[in-house]
Fold:
Amino acid sequence: MASIASQVVLHPVTSQSLRVLSTTIGRDKLYRAFQYFARFFAWLLLSRGYKIQAARWDALKSHLALGRKLLRLGKFVENAQAILRTLSSSGETGERVTMIGRHIGYFGYLFLDNISWANSIKFYNLQPSTAQKLNKRVMQFWFTGIVFSIAHGLLKAGRLANEVKKLQSQTWTEKSAEAERDVKLQDLQLAREAVRYQFIIDLIDVWLPAANIGLVNLNDGILGLFGLITSLMALRQQWFAAAGKK
Structure:
């Protein structure tokens, strides 16, 4: 029994899991996955008449959402830095503009989310009507950030595709030059895969704030599944990042 326990505790998967969960973003994505699963499961139970069980999962969803707000305290400063770095950087104008728009959206979202958290724990009390307006503004900034991220993904994907075509159309007689081209093509393909992956996440995630601000009418079951899928996709990214893989 002790041998089995030691194999489980010292297993590479266990060590990899600990590396992921040792990061704030890794824990956040795991909590997010449980939060949105709880949202979906609460909706499922309620739709079948299990009100008491649904209330338990709904409470789990609410507390996980509140706990994740704590993990995001001060994170808006990262977006402020990203805005300044993008402004001073070179590159395609369209990509730079959409990236700045993305970070402005997330800056507003995270900054107001911090105020919302302070109100939720009664550290700073807002009038109910003001709190409701604040929460809607949070969702509007989140929606704006994702829309700009989608636009950025489209522009960057188009540029990378053109660069790949340009390299593939070129021919070299020297093997060293051809080998260098193959390395560049491999790097471009990896970049395209990363952009495509994030684009899929954004396309699914955008429905969450869109529903919260009333642009679409989706039930908690669908939104819970959407959030669960994107959480697991983001957690997968963190898993490979912790392993040093691309």
Observations:
- The chain is about 85% helix and 0% strand.
- The mean pLDDT is 92.
